[in-house]
Each structure stands twice: as C-alpha cells, then as structure tokens.
Amino acid sequence: MPKEIEFQFKSPNESPGYLLGQVTMLWQRKLKAILDRLDLTQTQFVLLAALGWLLKKSNAVTQVDIANQSNTDRMMVSKVLRTLEKKKFISRQEHLTDTRAKVIKLTSEGTEVLQKALTVVENTDTEFFSVLGHDLPSFNQSMSNLIEQKKEEQKD
C-alpha cells in the first residue's frame, strides 16, 4: 500500500498558494470573457496598460520599460508587442539615442481599445473584489508589499 501523502496544511483553505491560485483563476476567467470582446488577451491588455502608464511620464517608452513596469519576461514582451503591432494598436520607431531600442507608441486604434479595456477591466475588478468591502485597501496593500518584497529577493 502506498505511503499516505503528508500535507503541511490541514486543508486547502489554509494554503495561501492554493487560495491565491483559485482566486486568480476565477478572476482571469472573468477578464478573459470581457477582453475577448475587444480582441485582447490578458497579457496584451497588461502590456498596453503598462505602456499607457509609462506614456504619462515619458514619450520614449521602450520594450524594456514595458517589461519592467509589467514585471514580465522581456522575450515574451517582444512577441506580444509584435502581435499588438500587427493589430495596429502600437507602433515602433527608432530610439533617438539607443540604436538597439525602439520607442513604443500607442496608435489611435490602440488608445481607443486600451480606454475601452480599462473601463471594462476596472469595472470588473470593482465588482469582483467588492466582496472584500472595507478590507480591500488592506488586501491591496498586502499584495503590494508582497510584490515589492519578492521583486527585491529576485534581484539578489
């Protein structure tokens, strides 16, 4: 007879990783349903949103900037940006000082689809996380702290 499997947690609901995975899957399903209507994947939306944020501060946003802002793999960012360029949501232009880099810009179509996506995603987030009520700011702060700490650990 096989040995009984031992778990550290007494139940799945005591495992933060399990719970995070479950919440993430439920949230991603909701986002997929609304982003499909805009011909965007969640990753495409994340990169467009990162670009949108970065463009508020600089007119010379690069692929590396987008990867850093979104905490996403640089090679994957490159592939997704090519897809967004084919969809005519972004354009790439030569960088003025770095010949290896391209400046990424939103096109008018990209600006329009990003604004629509932001509206539906933010409304979906508000509805999805509304069950947390007054605990939402604390939940957001805990997630922000965890992200910053883990990003710092990865640098070491």
UniProtKB/TrEMBL annotation:
<feature type="domain" description="HTH marR-type">
    <location>
        <begin position="13"/>
        <end position="152"/>
    </location>
</feature>
<dbReference type="InterPro" id="IPR036388">
    <property type="entry name" value="WH-like_DNA-bd_sf"/>
</dbReference>
<keyword id="KW-0238">DNA-binding</keyword>
<protein>
    <submittedName>
        <fullName>MarR family transcriptional regulator</fullName>
    </submittedName>
</protein>
<dbReference type="InterPro" id="IPR000835">
    <property type="entry name" value="HTH_MarR-typ"/>
</dbReference>
<dbReference type="GO" id="GO:0003677">
    <property type="term" value="F:DNA binding"/>
</dbReference>
<dbReference type="GO" id="GO:0006950">
    <property type="term" value="P:response to stress"/>
</dbReference>
<keyword id="KW-0804">Transcription</keyword>
<dbReference type="InterPro" id="IPR039422">
    <property type="entry name" value="MarR/SlyA-like"/>
</dbReference>
<dbReference type="GO" id="GO:0003700">
    <property type="term" value="F:DNA-binding transcription factor activity"/>
</dbReference>
<dbReference type="Pfam" id="PF01047">
    <property type="entry name" value="MarR"/>
</dbReference>
<dbReference type="InterPro" id="IPR036390">
    <property type="entry name" value="WH_DNA-bd_sf"/>
</dbReference>
<keyword id="KW-0805">Transcription regulation</keyword>
